[in-house]
Design brief:
Blueprint: H1 3-7, H2 10-32, H3 41-61, E1 66-67, E2 74-75, H4 76-80, H5 88-93, H6 101-124, H7 131-142, H8 145-149, H9 156-176, H10 180-192, H11 194-211, H12 217-237, H13 239-250, H14 269-280, H15 310-318, H16 322-334, H17 337-340, H18 354-370, H19 374-400, H20 412-434, H21 440-464, H22 470-482, E3 491-492, H23 497-503, H24 517-524, H25 543-546, E4 549-554, E5 561-567, E6 572-577, E7 584-587, E8 589-592, H26 593-597, H27 601-610, E9 612-614, H28 621-626, E10 628-629, H29 641-650, E11 654-659, E12 662-669, E13 673-677, E14 685-689, E15 692-694, E16 697-699, E17 702-707, E18 710-718, H30 723-749
Parallel strand pairs: 3-4, 8-9, 8-10
Antiparallel strand pairs: 1-2, 4-6, 5-6, 7-13, 11-12, 12-18, 13-17, 14-15, 14-18, 16-17
Helix pairs in contact: 2-6, 2-7, 2-21, 3-23, 6-7, 6-9, 7-18, 7-21, 9-10, 9-11, 10-11, 10-12, 11-16, 12-30, 13-30, 14-19, 15-18, 15-19, 16-18, 19-20, 22-23
Length: 750
């Protein structure tokens, strides 16, 4: 095939155009950073370090391994599946060294925008007569408000890229009664990200009901069973990823719960206004919002470049079909938590399903352009501008009244600029449609220019909101490349994900929503709970020492023991050490959970340095015989933390090593001894003494084992719970899928 003919293909044009827009938008930051690309907040604090950490964890412990880099330690599958473990773009990054990721991430981001164009084009062209409109629609989808605002969450774009394939699969299934591609796309999306997949399944059901549901009950029931069968098979093929994560999620107290029918019919006034703003106006950065709230880290973004909602309103006015009904349903659902949160099983949806809504909006927009209706477009323009005007008036009234004690207009210039852009775009759209012959080239050029402008502004504002400057971030990145801890028996007392994950050392990383459930149990000992951030380990006396936080970084000379020095472009940095308990040490007493909780929070870490905590149900007669029970009043709080550290260091295990498969050590106690390991427990752990399995006792989310007197080899091995079952189910699923393909081909050949 000639190159010119290949380039003329609609999906190739979508790829090239979307790549070029993203490239022009991101290239200034790439050049400014001399190839090193950073943005702000979660992109810097999670996306970059998590990708590097996942890369190193896979090389260290494999797919079923244990990551010591995520908080106090978490299953690799459970820690990273929500992020990038299933993402094809992550696996592409594995072709490069792990620490090269900041230098290639911008180019991978460009590819994500480009492939979002490709997949949406392949879907949209099924509904237009001329494929050029599908190319235009692909730009609208790839650079919708949802895509641009969620640049902060790099891994969200995997869902944006691959979701349209599920709809294509369903369309082919209904059109040709061929479910092969449908099943594969279900597998693909389930494998890529289980969280977004749940929402996609809900949307798929809604899509089917509005688009295909038959009044013939027999046909409807048959279709339902066929679709369920396809879904079960697709999920089964991804079971090695899906089952471990479902086991993890069901045991996670952060998982949302249904809070009652009536209470979920309404939301707060600021939320109503923010949703309306996000529907009407160009998307803003999450870190800097012009009205309603200073910051908002939910995924509200819908604006179609140039057109806004004008063509969608025109489409609804002109046609009362399945697409109109889906768009109306999604709009209404956005304002009702009962419907909106349904997409993610009543975890806070935060409009993270709007990319699916955006695809429907893009489809309606291009269908309206291909078959324009001047009257409907004029009416849509009036309604859209009127809605914006009403919103602006309402915001000003709320601001003047200081309603609910809030300042409603925070950055007036930016707000009115967004309002002006939306209104101008609406008027331009109306002008375009009012002409007898729509110039596709002019429309397409204007959409691309607006898309580029919006993305440039968003990246610029995101970068100006960076809480840590480029040089400071790069300094820590350079330090982490060289950093090694002198002893594996201790952790790095540093909460920055980048340091621990890039250095691939155990630390106190505290910004993740997917750490082990037992870490949450441990944090509950201190009455701490947060959806995303882990408990600060230095806020409670003795806690960092209890958890082995022996090493820490300083960026200027200070008193203390220097372990290593690092030269950076800004200044020297120093790896320091202080007293801390080893990860594994002997205990001779226990305290019940109730007794521990009776103490003030600031005394509980010291209590745990004195005695291991046990729930009443876990205290056996053997434990009562072997260990002394400590009451809250028995603990000597006049004894210093340093003294406790010395005592526990004296009872340390020996020869401690750890990797992605588990940990090993040697003991040589004079009598039978219980050993406490400040490592999060889950059912994936197996402990052996000289090769013989021994029981693991859960101690406030951590682990405790009984070791006989004398010299012994202790080994903890880790395999993600549910993985073996998942592999068996996946094998059955793939065999069934291949068999289905063979049978289909034989029938087709007859």
């Amino acid at each position: 095939m000639k190159v010119k003919e290949w380039i003329k293909r609609d999906y190739v044009q979508s790829f090239l155009i979307c790549f070029m827009i993203a490239c022009l938008a991101l290239l200034p930051l790439v050049i400014k950073g001399k190839g090193f690309f950073v943005l702000t907040n979660d992109f810097n604090d999670q996306q970059i370090p998590f990708t590097i950490g996942l890369h190193k964890d896979l090389l260290d412990g494999g797919f079923s391994g244990f990551s010591w880099d995520v908080d106090l330690g978490t299953s690799t599958i459970q820690a990273y599946s929500f992020y990038e473990l299933g993402g094809p773009f992550f696996w592409l990054s594995m072709l490069f060294p792990a620490n090269a990721f900041p230098y290639i991430v911008a180019w991978l981001f460009m590819l994500k925008f480009a492939f979002a164009g490709v997949t949406s084009c392949l879907y949209l062209r099924r509904f237009v007569n001329e494929s050029k409109w599908a190319v235009l629609g692909s730009v609208l989808y790839a650079f919708s408000g949802f895509s641009i605002i969620n640049m902060l969450f790099y891994h969200f774009h995997d869902a944006i890229v691959f979701f349209p394939l599920m709809l294509i699969g369903l369309e082919i299934f209904k059109e040709k009664n061929d479910c092969r591609f449908f099943v594969f796309t279900i597998f693909l999306n389930c494998f890529i990200n289980y969280f977004f997949f749940i929402g996609e399944v809900v949307f798929l059901v809604i899509y089917y009901l509005f688009r295909f549901a038959s009044k013939d009950i027999k046909t409807l029931v048959t279709d339902i069973f066929k679709c369920i069968g396809c879904g079960v098979l697709g999920v089964a093929m991804a079971a090695f990823m899906f089952i471990p994560n479902i086991l993890f999620v069901t045991g996670n107290p952060r998982t949302g719960q249904f809070s009652g029918f009536l209470s979920m019919l309404k939301t707060t006034l600021p939320d109503y206004m923010y949703i309306l703003k996000s529907l009407l106006l160009p998307a803003e950065t999450m870190t800097s919002v012009s009205v309603i709230s200073e910051q908002n880290f939910s995924s509200h973004g819908m604006y179609m470049p140039l057109f806004g909602l004008v063509l969608v309103l025109a489409y609804i006015i002109k046609k009362r079909d399945w697409l109109s009904r889906i768009i109306i349903f999604c709009t209404v659902a956005s304002f009702i938590p009962l419907l909106s949160d349904l997409f993610y099983m009543y975890s806070a949806a935060q409009m993270r399903w709007w990319y699916m809504f955006s695809l429907m909006v893009a489809l309606a927009s291009v269908m309206m352009l291909e078959e324009p209706d001047v009257k409907a477009t004029k009416t849509g323009t009036i309604i859209y501008i009127a809605a914006i005007a009403v919103f602006v008036i309402a915001i000003n009234i709320l601001n003047v009244l200081n309603a609910q004690g809030n300042t409603w207009i925070l950055r007036g210039v930016r707000f009115y600029t967004l309002v002006a852009l939306a209104i101008i775009g609406a008027l331009v759209t109306n002008y375009i449609v009012s002409k007898q012959n729509i110039s596709y080239k002019n429309v397409f050029t204007n959409v691309c220019i607006v898309s580029l402008g919006l993305m440039l502004c968003t990246t610029y504002i995101y970068k100006t909101c960076d809480w840590m400057g480029y040089q400071a971030y790069k300094q820590k990145y350079d330090i982490a490349k060289e950093l090694e801890l002198p002893s594996q028996q201790y952790r790095l007392n540093n909460t920055m994900n980048l340091i621990s994950m890039e250095a691939h050392v155990a630390g106190f990383t505290n910004q993740t929503s997917t750490n082990a459930n037992s870490i949450i149990e441990f944090e509950d000992l201190f009455d701490y709970y947060h959806n995303v951030a882990g408990m600060p380990k230095n806020d409670i006396p003795g806690l960092a020492a209890l958890l082995g936080g022996k090493y820490y970084l300083m960026y200027e000379e200070s008193a203390g023991t220097v372990v290593d020095e690092y030269d950076t472009d800004l200044s020297k940095a120093y790896l320091m050490e202080t007293g801390a308990c080893p990860i594994g040490f002997a205990v001779d007493s226990y305290i019940t959970l109730d007794e521990l909780k009776s103490l003030p929070v600031n005394q509980r870490a010291i209590a745990l340095m004195d005695s291991a905590v046990l729930a009443e149900d876990d205290i056996t007669e053997e434990i009562k015989t072997d260990l002394v029970e400590t009451k809250a009043g028995d603990i000597n709080f006049e004894k210093s933390i340093d003294e406790y550290v010395v005592d526990n260091t004296y009872g340390s295990v020996l020869g401690f090593t750890k990797d992605g498969h588990g940990m090993k050590c040697v003991t040589g106690y004079d009598k039978d001894t219980y050993v406490y390991f400040s490592v999060p427990y889950d059912e994936g752990w197996t402990a052996t003494i000289d090769g013989i399995k021994t029981d693991i006792i859960k101690s406030g989310g951590m682990m405790l084992i009984k070791v006989p007197s004398g010299n012994h080899n202790i080994e903890f091995s880790y395999c993600t719970p549910g993985l073996k079952l998942g592999l068996i189910v996946a094998a059955i699923g793939w065999i069934s899928f291949i068999g289905m393909i063979i049978i289909f081909k034989k029938k087709k050949g007859q």
